[in-house]
Amino acid sequence: MKRTAGSEFIFQLFALLLSVIIVHATYVTLIRPNAEVLLKQQADQMIAGSEVTGQRSIYVVLKDYEQETCFILMFWVLMIMGYKAKLSLQEKRMLAHAMLDVKEGASIFPEDAYNLCQPLKNLAEEERQMLAPRTLLIALQRFAATSNIAAVASAIKDICESEADRLDSELAMIRYIAWAIPSIGFIGTVRGIGEALGQAHQAVEGNIIGVTNSLGVAFNSTFIALVISIFIMFFSHQLQLLQERLVQNTQDYCDNNLLNFLKSDRDEVE
Fold this sequence. Notes:
Helix content: over 70%
Distance between the termini: 42 Å
Mean pLDDT: 85
Low-confidence stretches: none
Largest sheet: none
Radius of gyration: 29 Å
Order of helices and strands: HHHHHHHHHHH
Strand content: under 5%
Number of helices: 11
């Protein structure tokens, strides 16, 4: 929507920057220092020949750069989805308002349409650009110009379908991030396996510390990425459902509060 294009772009940039700062700060101050301490303890235990604790710490599982990148993308896309959900809820609340002053059983004729347009034009710019007021205004203007109820119904349908297509296209970035997160996890898997193969000669000599750590990178990155991807896809589908219901409810609102009251000929009614 034109009213949010610029502000949404700025919000996305700010959200990305904020996500990078928060996640990286958490990794630098908490996750990696603790993971290094635990890995050093395990390495010392293996060198000393003592029994190594089998349970892996969450710090060790999360410590690598692939997991950090996945969390940055996760928080970023969650903020984007939250922003879009907020806009959709504002549009939904607009449907609770009586935007047209039409009493039950009244009839709207073409010459009445321009008068009904005025309250919609008097709305604040942000409200006027919302789907429901915009659709009602265009429908009334179409009715005043053509006196054709079928043309009004077609206009309402076309606007709602266009809005549905626009909302769906704007989910492309969210879908891309949801696809990119497991891909980053697989990159960690390839990197970890490659490092493990490069240290195979050490394992032959009896030093398996490097190989086990590299294999940990491989499996941990994929595990975290897939968990995050499942989490993101759930909220992505919820957002899509919210937007689809908004468009359908707007079309129903226009049908019930405008289309059902339209009369093309005053003489026929009389």
